[in-house]
Amino acid sequence: MTKMLVLEARLYLRDWPTLLFTIGLPLGLLLVLGLSIPVMTQAGESGERMVDAQLPTMMTLLALLTLSCNIVPAVLTTYRERGVLRRMSTTPVHPARLLGVQLLINLVVGVVSATLLIVAAAVVFGAPLPGRPVVFVLVFLLGTAALLAIGLVIAALAPNGKTAPGIGAVVMFPLMFLGGMWVPRDIMPDAVRAVSDFSVAGPFAQALKDAWAGQSPELGHLAVVAAGLVIFGGLAVRLFRWE
């Protein structure tokens, strides 16, 4: 596992466009939007600015959705298409270990991206650090696991490496919308917010924002994210193909 982790990490680090897209893009959007749109740094009636929790949360969601809906499916379907997983199945090293290594690497990338977003928001805009750090970390790990499970389902259904990013995009953009990327959940119409509440991305983003703002996430939101992890994780195990 250690050797596989080192090898896959080296391959990942060589793919600088992927790192730029998953780490650089959310960080760049945070800085550009925060510095160029005044409303982002103006306090509302509650005294909270959008750069305090809303915008960093959305950029964190963007990074994690990019990893789960694009990067993970593309890599795993390409490995399957090229016979890497099939050849590994003939060795004592089960291909499931490669899957585990990929998930671990993408989790680390997600943590790095979220950490940079937290630091940038605090340093550049004076945004507060997550008010409930332990809860924030737990919500982050739970939501990331649920989103990666969705990515594994996409990898199971995609016929090859070329179609995986397209299928991932079809899943990713609705989840971004339901997560409040373009329209904050607070001002969504009731019908849209009801759909968002069961989309995994919506409850995850809301729970993450609540923990960032020092509030307790709603148990209903956490239950939906946990249910998404169980459902999509089970589908991934059932549907995933090594060949």
TrEMBL record:
Belongs to the ABC-2 integral membrane protein family. It comes from Nonomuraea longispora. This is Transport permease protein. GO terms for cellular component: ATP-binding cassette (ABC) transporter complex. Keywords: Antibiotic resistance, Cell membrane, Membrane, Transmembrane, Transmembrane helix, Transport. The chain crosses the membrane at residues 20-39, 59-79, 99-127, 133-157, 164-183, 219-240. It is found in: Cell membrane; Membrane. One of its GO terms (biological process) is response to antibiotic. Pfam families: ABC2_membrane. Its main location: membrane. It is a multi-pass membrane protein. Residues 17-243 form the ABC transmembrane type-2 domain. GO terms for molecular function: ABC-type transporter activity.
